[in-house]
Amino acid sequence: MKIIEGHHEIDVPDGVPVWDVDPYDVNILQDPSDYYAELRSKGPFVFIPKYSILACGRHKETKEVFSDWERFVSSRGVGLQDFELEEPWRPRSIILEVDPPDHAITRRVLARALSPKATADLKEDFQIEADKLIDELLEKGSFEAVVELAEEFPTTVFPKAVGLKENNSRALVDYGAMVFNALGPDNELRRNAMAMGPTTVPWIVEQCSRKNLKDKGFGATIFAAADAGEINEEQAEKLVRSLLSAGVDTTVTGIGSALWCLASFPEQFKRLKEDPSLMRPAFEEVLRFTSPVHSFCRTANGDTEVSGVKIAEGSKILCVLGAANADETQWSDPNKFDIGRRPTGHLAMGTGIHGCVGQNLARAEVAAVLTSILNKVDKIEFTGEAVWRPNNAIHALDKLPLIFKTA
Ligand code: OVV
Questions:
Q1: If phi over 0 gives left and psi between -120 and 50 gives alpha, with beta otherwise, what is residue 52?
Q2: CA 275 to ligand 1 center in whole angstroms
């Protein structure tokens, strides 16, 4: 058996088109919509020779592969590497990279820490912080929204919500870049991210221990589960690490992409200002339209079949969430940003047992920022060109020069 990028080299399944594309090409990562459309047009699955993987981008198959944890496991890694063949770059996540029954225990603990009640309790604090930040930016005039808003807000409120005694925004953002780029191949993006390890990983690991967490916050709830014997101390530390892995880049991206959408489609911003009850559906549409997490993998744990395609044990399947979220058989006029559409069933937060456990928190963060903007800002305009930042798993902005205006 040959191994490519740490996973099995598979045969091309009968009837599956071979597509000589690199999904991790920088140009595709920055501007993926043509790639998404071509992927969907080719069939339920394609075979990509460069990595010897299957990829899917139609809503139906992407959802099926993503949610069927028995046939398409996460325990062999949700990036290109197969953990059965190659050691992961860090001790594996005990919630992301694990299957039932073990998954249920850790999932229950994190779901409790991030429950609707726990996140609702933070609402007031989030609003105060958002109002303060938006006031500052209004006063400032033009600003760089990735650094000054999209990164600034989550790296202020999130470490506090976790209960970190020490904050280091740079390390949090850089660690997120490592975790998500690590899901791709051994390309320049992944290598550059990994190079930040020595200045980033020790700080992250250190903050996960009980002594560095306050007695209030998500961290405290996780360690209370250790005290109750539900998990052990080491598992508690690992779950705090999961918060720090998945909680920053994702919300930074969600906020940045929401701002980009509202600046790009001023008529939709106007509509939202006129009807703030559209805020929740507007953010769902931001998620569908921009797909902050563009792709995650699964691994076939046995020979199986999806939509008539025979999938062999060990096959890595790249589930292109961004493509599924633009599937024309699922949504009418999918390339239109429409805050009134209520895009139930989008896959931006995943689906099934591994669906984003922090989604209440993410929505609460965005709601605070958008509420403040709707109350204080009349116009959002670009003052320069928006630039997207290539990342092996995240579709995020790199530069977003904006100005907030009042009437
Ligand atoms: C990148 C990512 C997403 C979700 C969870 C985790 C990481 C984790 O470390 O558990």
A1: left
A2: 35
Domain extents in the chain: 3-405
- Annotation: CATH topology of 3-405: Cytochrome p450 (1.10.630)
DSSP-derived secondary structure for 61-83: HHHHHHH-TTTEESTT-SSSS-T
Mutate to test the pocket of ligand 1, among 98, 242, 357 (most ligand atoms within 8 A of CB): 242
- Residue 129 in tokens: 């912080």
Q: Whose CA is nearest to atom 9 of ligand 1?
A: 242
Distance 242 CA to ligand 1 centre (A): 5
pLDDT in tens, 23-50: 999 999 999 999 999 999 999 999 999 9
Largest CA distance in the chain: 66
Residue with the nearest Cα to atom 2 of ligand 1?
A: 246
Mean of pLDDT values over 230-236 = 98
Contact present, 33 and 335 (Cβ < 8 Å): yes
Q: Check whether 341 has a pLDDT greater than 70.
A: yes
The model's pLDDT over 373-401, given as tens digits with 9 standing for 90+, comes to 999 999 999 999 999 999 999 999 999 99
Closest CA to 104 of 231, 244, 222: 231
pTM: 0.97
Mutate to test the pocket of ligand 1, among 66, 74, 95 (most ligand atoms within 8 A of CB): 95
- With contact defined as beta carbons under 8 Å apart, do 96 and 78 qualify? yes
